[in-house]
Amino acid sequence: MSIMVSVKTLRALVAAFLLAISTLPAFADIKDYEFQLTQKELKQGDGVIVTVRLIDRRSGKAVPDAVIFASRIDMEPDGMATMASKLEPMPALEPGSYSFRTNLTMEGGWRMSLAAKVQGEDGTLESRLILKATP
After folding, report:
1. Which of 117, 104, 115, 118 lies closest to 40 in space, CA to CA?
2. How far is CA 99 from CA 14, 33, 36, 54, 55, in A?
3. What is the model's pTM?
4. Quick one: the chain helix, strand, coil %, rounded to 5?
5. Which 3-state string (H, E, C) describes 77-134?
């Protein structure tokens, strides 16, 4: 009988442990997030708005409240990394979207580089996105 009690007790402990760990939040890695351009082609000119979404790759959902602390846009895809424009942060239209005003002074390929901190995650998310300025 003492063996039966021990097996029952062990089963109960295992069940309680499994229940406890199933309620813990899933831990993410900074690699589980990515920025995506909302438009890969934009009209060349001054005052162009470039918008990106921050996505949790595991769920596909937008991630709000990231802190973007570094941003740059240049023409590196066309071999002109020194041809850069300013990126001015703009108010977001929806949670998980991040917009910037810039001057796409020439048509061609542009690289947008971002560095951000995602709330509740360790590390820095770094992203390089390629877009095209059209006439």
Report:
1. 104
2. 49, 18, 12, 11, 15
3. 0.77
4. 20, 50, 30
5. HHCEEEEEECCEEECCCCCCEEEEEEEECCCEEEEEEEEEECCCCCCCEEEEEEEEEE
Query: Which tokens hold the place of 90?
Result: 């703009």
Q: What is the mean pLDDT of residues 14-43?
A: 75
3 state SS for 25-67: CCCCCHHHEEEEECCCEEECEEEEEEEEEEEECCCCCECCCCE
Look at residue 8 and tell me whether its pLDDT is greater than 90.
no
**Joined tokens for residue 31:** 């690699």
Residue 3 has a CB neighbour count (10 Å cut-off) of 7
Q: Is residue 127 within 8 Å of 113, Cβ to Cβ?
A: yes
